[in-house]
Amino acid sequence: MMGARRRCILATLAFLMLMGIAVYFRLWAIHYNLSSDDTQLLRQQFDIANREAMDESAEWRLRYDQEVDRTKKCLQELQVFQESSQKGQDASDINHKLAILQKENAVLLERLETLKRELEEERLKCSS
């Protein structure tokens, strides 16, 4: 009786071990399928994140290019303003020089008139 009982226990133990191994392999297979699905999911998420990063990079590049264009336009306007300001200063300098030259011209015209009068006086002296 003791031998039969021992065999029954060993058979039950062997059966339970086989069932445990079967359950273990089943769980391992499920985990493997989930892992491969996770790998595919991770790959898809990486691709999505990569596309989003590329889009964001393109957006920032566009903003940079727009800012560079705006800066160039501002610099050109500043340069035009500086040139016109310089022309304004040149114009005021020219007006000042013109006023000086007009005064000098008036002085020279007066001097010319006096010289003409002196010349006429000398002619009159010579002819008399």
UniProtKB/TrEMBL annotation:
Residues 98-125 form a coiled coil. It comes from Glycine soja (Wild soybean). Keywords: Coiled coil. It comes from the Eukaryota. This is Uncharacterized protein.
